[in-house]
């Protein structure tokens, strides 16, 4: 769970300090945006073509949304910190 809550103190490869990052809510917003844009059309397609039971759709798409969110969140957090590093923002200068 540590990767979901905070960024490491420094880079393991180069030693760059990362403790002063400012990712804030950006990764969560991007995760919601991506998961919503991936799952909503898929939900519509599955519903219109196969008409599964509501509980089947709830559990299937609930697990899918949760898995995709857990996969994307730390990667998007890293991407935002990497963008800040590349642009020398928030103390990376």
Describe the protein.
Helices cover 67% and strands 0% of the residues. With 93 residues, the protein is mostly helical. The protein has one domain (24-93). The protein starts with a helix and ends in a 7-residue tail after the last helix.
Structural class: mainly alpha
Overall average pLDDT? 91
Termini, distance in Å? 29 Å
General shape = elongated
| Beta strand % | under 5%
Number of domains: 1
For the CA atoms, what is the radius of gyration?
Answer: 18 Å
Count of DSSP strands: 0
In DSSP terms (H or I, runs of 4 or more residues), the helix count works out at 3
Relative helix content: 55-70%
Order of helices and strands: HHH
Could you name the ranges where pLDDT drops below 50 across 5 or more consecutive residues?
none
Q: How would you characterize the largest beta sheet?
A: none
Q: What attributes does this structure have?
A:
93 residues, 0% strand, mainly alpha, 3 helices
Concise overview:
This protein has 93 residues and is mostly helical. It is built from three helices and no strands. Helix 2 (26-50) runs antiparallel to helix 3.
Per-chain topology:
Layout: H1 2-5, H2 26-50, H3 54-86
């Amino acid at each position: 769970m540590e990767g979901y809550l905070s960024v490491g103190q420094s880079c393991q490869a180069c030693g760059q300090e990362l403790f002063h990052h400012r990712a804030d809510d950006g990764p969560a917003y991007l995760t919601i945006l991506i998961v919503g844009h991936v799952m909503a059309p898929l939900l519509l397609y599955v519903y219109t073509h196969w008409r599964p039971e509501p509980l089947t759709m709830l559990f299937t798409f609930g697990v899918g949304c949760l898995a995709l969110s857990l996969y994307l969140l730390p990667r998007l957090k890293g991407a935002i910190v990497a963008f800040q590093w590349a642009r020398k923002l928030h103390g990376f200068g």
